[in-house]
Design a protein that fits this description.
Elements: H1 3-16, H2 44-50, E1 62-68, E2 72-77, E3 84-86, H3 101-105, E4 110-111, E5 116-117, E6 126-130, E7 136-140, E8 143-144, E9 162-164, E10 167-172, E11 178-179
Parallel strand pairs: 1-5
Antiparallel strand pairs: 1-2, 3-10, 4-7, 6-7, 7-8, 9-10, 10-11
Length: about 190
C-alpha cells in the first residue's frame, strides 16, 4: 500500500471516529512523523491491516430480515449485522461509488459465492457486482450493500440516515426500498 494512500486512509479513519488531524499528536522524535506506516502501539503490518479498505469476502453471503423500532423490517447478514445502501450508488448499476476511505467507514458486504436468501429475503432480488479489486459485492434490488464500521453488535443501526461521503446511508427494507426514517438510534455511552 502506498504511503500516500495509507495517509489518506488514516485521515479518513480519524475523521470517522471524531478526530481531526489537528488533534493528532505533534510530529516529534517520539511519534516519528516521517513514517506514515507507523501507528503508535502497532507494528506496520497491524496498522496496514486496520486500514485495509475491503474486508475479506465471506464464503457465501446470507441475507435475512430483522425488525426494530422505529425502522420496521430491514436487511441484515446471517449474524444480524445491519446492511445499508448508499444513495450515491446507482440502483441496478454495475459498480460501487464507495471505495478506499469510504469503504473503511462503510465496508462492502462481499462474497465468494452466489448470495443466499433466508427469513423474508427474496432470492430473485439478490445479485452481485464486481468491485475494482475483483471482489464480488452483494446487491439487493440492485443496491450494493454495506456494513457501518461503528455497528459493533447485531441489531446496531448507527449508520441509519447518516449523511457521509457526499450522500446518505439507509437501511434497506425486504422490498428493496431505502428506509428513510429521520430517527436515529442513540449512541450508547462509553464505559469509563
Amino acid at each position: 500500500m502506498s504511503s500516500k494512500r495509507l495517509l489518506c486512509l488514516a485521515s479518513a479513519s480519524m475523521l470517522m471516529f471524531g478526530l481531526s488531524p489537528a488533534m493528532a499528536a505533534p510530529e516529534t522524535a517520539e511519534t516519528d512523523g516521517d513514517d506514515p506506516m507507523k501507528v503508535e502501539g502497532m507494528s506496520p503490518e497491524e496498522a496496514e491491516d486496520q486500514l485495509d479498505a475491503t474486508p475479506e469476502p465471506v464464503d457465501q453471503a446470507k441475507l435475512t430480515v430483522s425488525e426494530k423500532e422505529p425502522y420496521g423490517r430491514y436487511l441484515t447478514n446471517q449474524d444480524g449485522k445491519s446492511l445499508y445502501m448508499f444513495d450515491r450508488d446507482e440502483q441496478d448499476g454495475d459498480y460501487s461509488t464507495c471505495e478506499e476511505s469510504c469503504a473503511i467507514a462503510w465496508p462492502p458486504y462481499t462474497t465468494e459465492d452466489t448470495p443466499a436468501a433466508s427469513g423474508g429475503v427474496e432470492d430473485d432480488r439478490l445479485g452481485v457486482i464486481e468491485r475494482d479489486d475483483g471482489t464480488l459485492q452483494v446487491t439487493y434490488e440492485g443496491w450494493p450493500l454495506y456494513f457501518f464500521a461503528r455497528d459493533v453488535y447485531p441489531g446496531d443501526a448507527l449508520g441509519q440516515s447518516v449523511e457521509h461521503m457526499g450522500g446518505h446511508w439507509y437501511l434497506l427494507s425486504p422490498d428493496g426500498e431505502p428506509i428513510v426514517a429521520e430517527t436515529r438510534e442513540p449512541a450508547e455511552p462509553a464505559d469509563s
